[in-house]
Protein backbone atom coordinates (compact mmCIF):
# COMPACT_ATOMS: atom_id res chain seq x y z
CA UNK A 1 0.00 0.00 0.00
CA UNK A 2 1.32 3.47 -0.87
CA UNK A 3 2.28 5.62 2.10
CA UNK A 4 1.83 9.37 2.25
CA UNK A 5 4.11 11.63 4.32
CA UNK A 6 3.19 11.73 7.99
CA UNK A 7 1.41 14.97 8.82
CA UNK A 8 -1.17 14.40 11.55
CA UNK A 9 0.44 13.18 14.78
CA UNK A 10 -1.35 12.25 17.99
CA UNK A 11 0.67 12.06 21.22
CA UNK A 12 -0.50 10.05 24.23
CA UNK A 13 1.11 11.05 27.53
CA UNK A 14 1.94 14.63 26.60
CA UNK A 15 2.31 15.81 30.20
CA UNK A 16 4.82 13.22 31.36
CA UNK A 17 8.56 13.56 31.88
CA UNK A 18 9.31 12.36 28.35
CA UNK A 19 5.98 13.16 26.69
CA UNK A 20 6.22 16.86 27.47
CA UNK A 21 9.63 17.03 25.78
CA UNK A 22 8.41 15.03 22.77
CA UNK A 23 5.50 17.46 22.46
CA UNK A 24 7.94 20.36 22.46
CA UNK A 25 10.03 18.61 19.79
CA UNK A 26 7.00 18.02 17.58
CA UNK A 27 6.00 21.68 17.88
CA UNK A 28 9.53 22.90 17.10
CA UNK A 29 9.72 20.66 14.02
CA UNK A 30 6.95 22.85 12.60
CA UNK A 31 5.83 20.25 10.07
CA UNK A 32 3.07 18.33 11.86
CA UNK A 33 -0.56 18.85 12.79
CA UNK A 34 -0.36 17.79 16.43
CA UNK A 35 -3.08 16.60 18.78
CA UNK A 36 -3.01 15.10 22.25
CA UNK A 37 -5.06 12.06 23.30
CA UNK A 38 -6.25 12.30 26.90
CA UNK A 39 -8.45 10.26 29.19
CA UNK A 40 -11.73 12.04 29.87
CA UNK A 41 -11.03 12.04 33.62
CA UNK A 42 -7.55 13.56 33.25
CA UNK A 43 -6.86 16.92 34.90
CA UNK A 44 -3.70 17.46 32.83
CA UNK A 45 -3.48 20.46 30.58
CA UNK A 46 -1.75 20.97 27.25
CA UNK A 47 -0.85 24.10 25.27
CA UNK A 48 -4.03 25.89 24.21
CA UNK A 49 -2.93 25.70 20.60
CA UNK A 50 -2.86 21.88 20.67
CA UNK A 51 -6.22 20.13 20.17
CA UNK A 52 -7.19 17.56 22.79
CA UNK A 53 -8.96 14.32 21.92
CA UNK A 54 -10.81 12.86 24.90
CA UNK A 55 -11.44 9.12 25.30
CA UNK A 56 -12.79 6.95 28.15
CA UNK A 57 -10.22 6.31 30.92
CA UNK A 58 -9.93 2.58 30.18
CA UNK A 59 -8.94 3.25 26.54
CA UNK A 60 -11.52 0.87 25.00
CA UNK A 61 -10.42 -0.13 21.51
CA UNK A 62 -13.61 0.89 19.70
CA UNK A 63 -13.71 4.39 21.23
CA UNK A 64 -10.01 5.02 20.78
CA UNK A 65 -10.04 3.75 17.18
CA UNK A 66 -12.86 6.17 16.40
CA UNK A 67 -10.94 9.01 18.06
CA UNK A 68 -7.74 8.21 16.12
CA UNK A 69 -9.37 7.95 12.70
CA UNK A 70 -7.63 10.34 10.35
CA UNK A 71 -4.35 10.41 12.28
CA UNK A 72 -1.16 9.46 10.45
CA UNK A 73 0.92 8.61 13.53
CA UNK A 74 0.39 7.83 17.20
CA UNK A 75 3.14 8.09 19.83
CA UNK A 76 2.72 6.36 23.19
CA UNK A 77 4.73 8.23 25.84
CA UNK A 78 2.94 7.25 29.05
CA UNK A 79 4.04 4.65 31.65
CA UNK A 80 3.47 1.04 30.74
CA UNK A 81 1.63 0.11 33.94
CA UNK A 82 -0.13 -3.20 33.39
CA UNK A 83 0.53 -3.00 29.67
CA UNK A 84 -3.06 -3.73 28.65
CA UNK A 85 -3.79 -0.12 27.75
CA UNK A 86 -0.79 -0.04 25.44
CA UNK A 87 -1.93 -3.22 23.71
CA UNK A 88 -5.38 -1.68 23.23
CA UNK A 89 -3.86 1.56 21.95
CA UNK A 90 -1.84 -0.35 19.32
CA UNK A 91 -4.94 -2.28 18.24
CA UNK A 92 -6.98 0.93 18.06
CA UNK A 93 -4.30 2.61 15.95
CA UNK A 94 -4.40 -0.36 13.57
CA UNK A 95 -8.18 -0.29 13.33
CA UNK A 96 -8.13 3.48 12.75
CA UNK A 97 -5.79 3.11 9.77
CA UNK A 98 -2.89 4.91 11.45
CA UNK A 99 0.30 4.68 9.37
CA UNK A 100 2.86 4.66 12.19
CA UNK A 101 2.66 3.61 15.82
CA UNK A 102 5.56 4.34 18.19
CA UNK A 103 5.19 2.30 21.40
CA UNK A 104 6.45 3.36 24.84
CA UNK A 105 9.60 1.27 24.46
CA UNK A 106 11.98 4.13 25.29
CA UNK A 107 14.33 3.53 28.16
CA UNK A 108 17.33 1.98 29.80
CA UNK A 109 17.85 -1.20 27.79
CA UNK A 110 16.42 -3.24 24.94
CA UNK A 111 13.40 -4.86 26.58
CA UNK A 112 13.52 -7.83 24.21
CA UNK A 113 17.04 -8.90 25.26
CA UNK A 114 17.23 -12.08 27.41
CA UNK A 115 18.78 -10.39 30.46
CA UNK A 116 16.07 -7.73 30.97
CA UNK A 117 13.38 -10.34 30.29
CA UNK A 118 14.80 -12.42 33.12
CA UNK A 119 14.68 -9.68 35.72
CA UNK A 120 11.53 -7.61 35.38
CA UNK A 121 7.90 -8.06 34.25
CA UNK A 122 8.18 -4.48 32.91
CA UNK A 123 10.40 -5.66 30.07
CA UNK A 124 8.23 -8.66 29.32
CA UNK A 125 5.24 -6.32 29.02
CA UNK A 126 7.17 -4.01 26.69
CA UNK A 127 8.04 -6.99 24.54
CA UNK A 128 4.41 -8.06 24.39
CA UNK A 129 3.52 -4.63 23.02
CA UNK A 130 6.30 -4.86 20.42
CA UNK A 131 5.14 -8.34 19.42
CA UNK A 132 1.60 -6.97 19.10
CA UNK A 133 2.91 -4.27 16.76
CA UNK A 134 4.77 -6.87 14.69
CA UNK A 135 1.63 -9.01 14.39
CA UNK A 136 -0.48 -6.01 13.39
CA UNK A 137 2.08 -5.06 10.74
CA UNK A 138 1.80 -8.56 9.26
CA UNK A 139 -1.99 -8.21 9.19
CA UNK A 140 -1.59 -4.82 7.55
CA UNK A 141 0.52 -6.32 4.76
CA UNK A 142 -2.00 -9.09 4.22
CA UNK A 143 -4.98 -6.74 4.07
CA UNK A 144 -3.48 -3.71 2.34
CA UNK A 145 -3.53 -1.55 5.47
CA UNK A 146 -1.07 1.30 6.06
CA UNK A 147 -0.21 0.34 9.66
CA UNK A 148 3.47 0.11 10.63
CA UNK A 149 5.53 0.64 13.77
CA UNK A 150 8.89 1.90 14.98
CA UNK A 151 10.36 1.48 18.45
CA UNK A 152 12.95 3.98 19.67
CA UNK A 153 15.52 2.48 22.06
CA UNK A 154 17.60 5.17 23.73
CA UNK A 155 19.29 3.91 26.90
CA UNK A 156 18.99 5.73 30.21
CA UNK A 157 17.33 9.14 30.18
CA UNK A 158 20.65 10.83 30.92
CA UNK A 159 19.88 14.40 32.01
CA UNK A 160 16.72 13.38 33.86
CA UNK A 161 18.41 10.37 35.49
CA UNK A 162 21.49 12.35 36.47
CA UNK A 163 19.43 15.12 38.05
CA UNK A 164 16.91 12.89 39.82
CA UNK A 165 19.26 10.20 41.15
CA UNK A 166 18.07 7.42 38.84
CA UNK A 167 21.68 6.91 37.71
CA UNK A 168 22.67 6.53 41.38
CA UNK A 169 24.63 9.76 41.41
CA UNK A 170 24.11 11.96 44.47
CA UNK A 171 24.94 15.63 43.94
CA UNK A 172 24.53 16.54 47.61
CA UNK A 173 27.13 14.03 48.83
CA UNK A 174 29.20 14.02 45.58
CA UNK A 175 28.89 10.24 45.50
CA UNK A 176 28.45 7.89 42.55
CA UNK A 177 27.74 4.17 42.65
CA UNK A 178 30.08 2.47 40.17
CA UNK A 179 29.35 -1.00 38.78
CA UNK A 180 32.02 -3.61 38.02
CA UNK A 181 34.86 -1.11 37.84
CA UNK A 182 32.94 1.48 35.84
CA UNK A 183 34.68 1.02 32.47
CA UNK A 184 31.73 -0.48 30.56
CA UNK A 185 30.37 1.91 27.95
CA UNK A 186 26.61 2.38 27.62
CA UNK A 187 24.52 4.43 25.22
CA UNK A 188 22.39 7.03 26.96
CA UNK A 189 20.18 9.87 25.72
CA UNK A 190 19.01 13.25 26.91
CA UNK A 191 15.26 13.83 26.80
CA UNK A 192 15.72 16.27 23.93
CA UNK A 193 17.65 13.67 21.94
CA UNK A 194 14.81 11.16 22.38
CA UNK A 195 12.33 13.78 21.18
CA UNK A 196 14.58 14.64 18.25
CA UNK A 197 14.91 10.97 17.29
CA UNK A 198 11.14 10.51 17.48
CA UNK A 199 10.63 13.44 15.13
CA UNK A 200 13.24 12.06 12.71
CA UNK A 201 11.50 8.67 12.70
CA UNK A 202 8.30 10.34 11.53
CA UNK A 203 10.16 12.41 8.95
CA UNK A 204 11.91 9.29 7.61
CA UNK A 205 8.90 7.02 7.72
CA UNK A 206 9.91 4.59 4.98
CA UNK A 207 13.46 4.10 6.26
CA UNK A 208 12.25 3.44 9.82
CA UNK A 209 9.25 1.27 8.98
CA UNK A 210 8.64 -1.86 11.10
CA UNK A 211 11.93 -1.85 12.96
CA UNK A 212 13.72 -0.83 16.12
CA UNK A 213 16.06 2.15 15.96
CA UNK A 214 18.84 2.53 18.51
CA UNK A 215 19.89 6.10 19.33
CA UNK A 216 22.08 7.92 21.82
CA UNK A 217 23.37 11.28 22.93
CA UNK A 218 26.73 9.68 23.70
CA UNK A 219 28.25 6.38 24.82
CA UNK A 220 30.28 7.01 28.01
CA UNK A 221 31.42 4.73 30.79
CA UNK A 222 30.44 5.50 34.37
CA UNK A 223 34.02 6.64 34.95
CA UNK A 224 33.65 9.09 32.04
CA UNK A 225 30.52 10.54 33.63
CA UNK A 226 32.22 10.98 37.01
CA UNK A 227 35.18 12.69 35.33
CA UNK A 228 32.78 15.09 33.61
CA UNK A 229 31.06 15.79 36.95
CA UNK A 230 34.38 16.49 38.66
CA UNK A 231 35.38 18.88 35.88
CA UNK A 232 32.02 20.68 35.97
CA UNK A 233 31.99 21.05 39.76
CA UNK A 234 35.70 21.60 40.29
CA UNK A 235 36.02 19.05 43.06
CA UNK A 236 36.60 15.29 43.46
CA UNK A 237 33.75 12.83 43.78
CA UNK A 238 33.57 9.71 45.92
CA UNK A 239 33.02 6.46 44.02
CA UNK A 240 31.24 3.61 45.75
CA UNK A 241 32.30 0.47 43.87
CA UNK A 242 29.70 -2.29 43.55
CA UNK A 243 29.75 -5.83 42.16
CA UNK A 244 26.67 -6.03 39.94
CA UNK A 245 25.93 -9.74 40.43
CA UNK A 246 25.16 -9.73 44.19
CA UNK A 247 23.58 -6.28 43.78
CA UNK A 248 21.08 -7.69 41.25
CA UNK A 249 20.47 -10.77 43.38
CA UNK A 250 19.60 -8.57 46.35
CA UNK A 251 17.32 -6.42 44.19
CA UNK A 252 15.49 -9.52 42.96
CA UNK A 253 14.83 -10.56 46.55
CA UNK A 254 13.46 -7.11 47.34
CA UNK A 255 10.99 -7.43 44.46
CA UNK A 256 9.09 -9.87 46.68
CA UNK A 257 8.71 -7.37 49.52
CA UNK A 258 5.25 -6.51 50.81
CA UNK A 259 6.30 -2.86 51.02
CA UNK A 260 5.41 -1.01 47.78
CA UNK A 261 8.31 1.44 48.13
CA UNK A 262 10.79 -1.39 48.59
CA UNK A 263 9.55 -2.95 45.36
CA UNK A 264 9.82 0.35 43.50
CA UNK A 265 13.38 0.81 44.81
CA UNK A 266 14.29 -2.71 43.68
CA UNK A 267 12.92 -2.05 40.19
CA UNK A 268 14.88 1.19 39.98
CA UNK A 269 18.07 -0.61 41.04
CA UNK A 270 17.64 -3.32 38.39
CA UNK A 271 16.92 -0.75 35.68
CA UNK A 272 20.02 1.20 36.75
CA UNK A 273 22.26 -1.85 36.39
CA UNK A 274 20.89 -3.06 33.07
CA UNK A 275 21.10 0.41 31.54
CA UNK A 276 24.71 0.77 32.68
CA UNK A 277 25.98 -2.67 31.64
CA UNK A 278 23.81 -3.87 28.76
CA UNK A 279 23.18 -0.85 26.53
CA UNK A 280 26.00 -0.22 24.07
CA UNK A 281 23.94 0.53 20.97
CA UNK A 282 27.00 1.25 18.82
CA UNK A 283 27.42 -2.53 18.56
CA UNK A 284 23.83 -3.16 17.42
CA UNK A 285 22.75 -3.70 13.81
CA UNK A 286 19.92 -1.24 14.38
CA UNK A 287 22.19 1.63 15.47
CA UNK A 288 20.43 4.42 13.59
CA UNK A 289 22.30 7.66 14.22
CA UNK A 290 23.39 8.02 10.58
CA UNK A 291 19.99 6.88 9.31
CA UNK A 292 18.27 9.59 11.36
CA UNK A 293 20.89 12.25 10.61
CA UNK A 294 21.89 12.58 14.26
CA UNK A 295 25.28 13.30 15.81
CA UNK A 296 26.46 12.73 19.36
CA UNK A 297 26.03 15.50 21.88
CA UNK A 298 28.96 16.62 24.02
CA UNK A 299 29.03 14.80 27.37
CA UNK A 300 30.82 17.59 29.26
CA UNK A 301 28.41 20.22 27.93
CA UNK A 302 25.35 18.23 29.00
CA UNK A 303 26.81 17.49 32.44
CA UNK A 304 27.57 21.20 32.84
CA UNK A 305 23.92 21.99 32.04
CA UNK A 306 22.72 19.56 34.72
CA UNK A 307 25.20 20.92 37.27
CA UNK A 308 24.08 24.48 36.52
CA UNK A 309 20.44 23.48 37.06
CA UNK A 310 21.37 21.77 40.34
CA UNK A 311 23.18 24.86 41.58
CA UNK A 312 20.31 27.11 40.52
CA UNK A 313 17.87 24.98 42.49
CA UNK A 314 20.13 25.15 45.55
CA UNK A 315 20.31 28.94 45.42
CA UNK A 316 16.56 29.41 45.61
UniProtKB/TrEMBL annotation:
Q: Name one Pfam family in it.
A: NmrA
- Answer whether the UniProt record assigns the keyword NADP to this protein: yes
Q: Is Oxidoreductase found in the keyword set?
A: yes
Alphabetized UniProt keyword annotations:
NADP, Oxidoreductase
Q: One MF term in GO for this entry?
A: oxidoreductase activity
What InterPro entries does this protein's entry cite? Answer: NAD(P)-bd_dom_sf (IPR036291), NmrA-like (IPR008030), NmrA/Isoflavone_reductase-like (IPR051609), PCBER-like (IPR045312)
Domain NmrA-like span(s) in chain numbering: 7-248
Q: PANTHER family recorded for this chain?
A: NMRA-LIKE DOMAIN-CONTAINING PROTEIN-RELATED, NMRA-LIKE FAMILY PROTEIN
Q: What is this protein called?
A: NmrA-like domain-containing protein
Q: Origin organism of this chain? A: Trichoderma asperellum (strain ATCC 204424 / CBS 433.97 / NBRC 101777)
Starting at the broadest rank, the lineage of the source organism is:
Eukaryota, Fungi, Dikarya, Ascomycota, Pezizomycotina
